[in-house]
Amino acid sequence: MPQPVEASSSVAEANRKRAACAPPDADDFEDATRGRLAIPPLSAIPSRAPGGRPVWDFTGHAFLHRRDTPPPSVNPHLWRRSRLAAITSLFLVACTPEHALALYREATGSRKPVIGAIRAGSTATRRICGRIRRPRRAAGTWR
User: Fold this and answer.
1) pLDDT tens digits, 29-82
2) 0.70 surpassed by pTM
3) Where is the composition biased (Polar residues) (predicted)?
4) How far is CA 115 from the centre of its chain?
5) Closest CA to 61 of 87, 24, 29, 39
6) Which range of residues forms the domain containing residue 105?
7) Where among 75, 91, 107 does a domain terminate?
8) Where are the alpha helices (DSSP H) in 22-124?
9) Dihedral, CA atoms, 119, 124, 126, 129, nearest 10 degrees?
10) Which end of the chain is more exposed for a tag (fewer CB within 10 A), N or C?
11) Do residues 85 and 105 share a domain?
């Protein structure tokens, strides 16, 4: 890991001004940990390959949790966003596709079967495909 570099006076001053214009909002950190079931007891997710590199190493982001305020060389907004993104846990997550379908049905009154979907994230794939494939597979219309 590279060693930290002292901030120039202009960078430190610019970062002080950025920090002053946006007060910290603890709600984001509460939101980011809502539904937390467990914190991983390991420092890295190991590879399945023998002797392989870790798939994800949590220690690479540990420095973000050692201090609440960023060093003078770091943009405070990026520090905050990085701290939020580095929160690692097992979370209980609401089943979004079911809620989205219920909202769609309530708003449109439509009871037609869903035959397509646009996914906005890779984690949605299994649930969306399961919702579409099961009825169409049963009807013999899925390819």
Assistant:
1) 898 898 899 988 888 888 888 888 898 888 888 999 898 889 999 999 999 999
2) no
3) 1-12
4) 28
5) 87
6) 96-139
7) 91
8) 26-33, 76-85, 96-108
9) -30
10) C
11) no
